[in-house]
Amino acid sequence: MLSHIFVFGCVYFALGDPRAEVRATVATGVILIVMSLFILSCALYRLHEFEEVQSIWMLTVASIGLLANLAQIYILYPTDRKNISLRGFFYHILSDTGISVAVVCGGLVLYFTGWSHVDTILTFLIFPLIFWGGVSLIRNARKVAKE
After folding, report:
1. Is residue 119 within 8 Å of 58, Cβ to Cβ?
2. What pLDDT is recorded for position 2?
3. Three-class HEC string of 41-75
4. 134: domain range?
C-alpha cells in the first residue's frame, strides 16, 4: 500500500507536465521492478528456510488488499487513459488486483489443505508479472519521451 501512495503522489504531482508524467511512469516501473526482486528474494529464502505461513493472516491481508484495489479501480476507471502516468497507475492497480485474487485463493488452499508450499509457488508465479509490468512501463515511458 505504501508503494501505491508513493506512486499516486508521483502521478498526481505530474499531471499536466508531460516530462513529469514520463518521470512518474519511470518511477512506477522502477518501484515495480524493485518490489518484484524483493518478492523473489523472499521466495528463494523460503525455499531454504521454510517458515510456516499463517493462513488467516494471509487471507486477511490479501482480502484487505483486494478490497483496496477494487476501490481504487472504481475511482480510477473513468479517468483519462491518454495520460501515460495515470494509465500506468491504473494498470499497476489492475495487476495488483489479480495478484490479490491469486493470494486469496492460495490462502484458501492453505487454510483448507494445510499445504504451505502454495505460498512459495504463488510467489514464483507472481514475480514475472510484476517484473515485466515494471519493464513495460519504463519502455512505454521511453517511447513517449522520444515523441
Report:
1. yes
2. 62
3. HHHHHHHHCCCCCCHHHHHHHHHHHHHHHHHHHHH
4. 2-146
Report the chain (147 residues): mean pLDDT per 10 consecutive residues.
Answer: 65 72 84 90 85 84 91 78 73 83 91 88 89 89 82
Q: Tell me which amino acid residue 117 is.
A: H
Q: Tell me how far apart the alpha carbons of residues 13 and 6 are, in angstroms, rounded to a whole number.
A: 11
Q: What pLDDT does 20 receive? A: 79
- The label of the residue with cell 488486483 reads 97
d(CA 131, CA 66) in angstroms, rounded, equals: 20
Alpha carbon distance 76, 70 (integer Å): 10
Q: Give the whole-angstrom CA distance, residue 127 versus residue 135.
A: 12
d(CA 102, CA 32): 18
Which three cell numbers mark 139?
A: 519502455
Ramachandran area for residue 114 (φ above 0: left; ψ -120 to 50: alpha; else beta): left
Residue 105, CA distances (Å) to 7, 79, 96 in order: 27, 30, 14
Tally of structural domains, the chain: 1
